[in-house]
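[Q] Does anyone have a clean structure-token version of this?
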Amino acid sequence: MLAREYGISQLTECIGLAPRTVAEFRDASGAESLVMKSLFQQECLTRGILFSGGHNLCFSHAPADIDYTLRVYRTAMEVLGDAIRKGDVLERLRGEPVQPVFRRA
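[A] Here you go.
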């Protein structure tokens, strides 16, 4: 829904079933984009939300926690959408992009 709002729904997808879902980021060819994921992570972390791709909601999360997380996601999605449109996703990173955890042999 947020990705659609920022015009990048064809590049992002939230998969799985609530309350445990994962956000995926893909480039125009459909390949996984760790650069886009890295920028989204960076923007979330800058605002106090540790994002690694997965979402795990539980009863200990108060409505205020969820509201704050969604506000941060909205801002991070806005930054990502702008970077994609301007073609400067990599340049906006303040470090190295995340690397794959599992690699094929």
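[Q] Thanks! Anything notable?
[A] The longest strand covers residues 12-17.
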